[in-house]
Amino acid sequence: MRIRAWYAGAIALAAGMVAATAAVGQDAASTAQEIEKYRQALQDGNPAELWEARGEGLWKKPAGPKNASLEKCDLGLGPGVVKGAYAQLPRYFADVDRVMDLETRLAHCRVTLHGLTPAQATARPFGSPDNRSDNDALVAWVTSESKGATMNVPSAHAKEKEAFALGEKIFYFRGGPYDFSCATCHAADNTRIRLQDLPNLTKQAGAQLAYTTWPAYRVSQGELRTFQWRLNDCFRQQRFPELGFASDASIALTAFLARNANGAEFKAPTIKR
Amino acid sequence: MADPMRIRAAVDAGGVTEVKVLMSHEMETGQRRDAAGALVPAWFIQNVTATHAGKTVLSAQWGPAIAKNPFLSFRFKGAQKGDKVQVTWVDNRGDKRTDEATIA
Question: Which CATH number is associated with domain A48-272?
Fold first, then answer.
């Protein structure tokens, strides 16, 4: 019997070395191509699937003081409809008369269905190895159910327009010790910090590439990271105060970037370096 | 109790079954220090076995050099569509997990 085995560690190391050696003396475009090869080598066994599986379990399992599951949660396409829902978020929800993104809506459902307090429902927005986040897992699962869907964030409602306009304002708002805005790092083509390409988020192609590839399993962290986490980390890079989880500012910025990605195919959860 | 593995298995026209396994495990090397400077104890999967129809088709000894949340892919001959393949791991704390998949 012939047995062949590859180990994740070996693949990661080998691919990393290819990227490093090939980059020597070559231009930025080929560096990006080599990083892309590294991502592809890892895509097959993407550990994000472990979060997706846990999230599906959390969605279906009765929990909280009301001992109910989240299966009746309305993510915008009707109670319990998960398929394609993320590709149409953030959106206006009439039952709460406000625009919500996925995290805010999940927190809302954990309050109304599980019976948690709002503080309990948002207590752990991002996980770490010894302290996992149910939010990460639920987001992984819900987003995976939009894989292949076309981004179609609605903008008919006045509050959706308002959120988009506020998000745009936040994107260009300069402040903090370095007088940075998001646009300082994300409004020019072909720029990078170290080896990381900085997407031009003011152009459709850049916004589409960025928005449709989160959440992602970060190999360097061994964790699944959500789009909210990405925004949070860029607030940190910008030396801004911490972005409030499920805050109006966070929803608005997400609405701005999500709608700029309209028309693109949603591809996440992906794997990133 | 560890999270379930994700196992996919499919047999091709030539009778070769390809199995892809994702395992949820921290795979601590024993080299890392925590925020307080204390060594984080080694904690990793030590043995992996895969069986089909009562026969071992893969047996591996692993160490701390394997990445967190490991992905394992291997091939073997002799299985049919609809058969089951079982995968078991045991870590250095004696914790263990077995999952199975139906070959597509």
Answer: 1.10.760.10
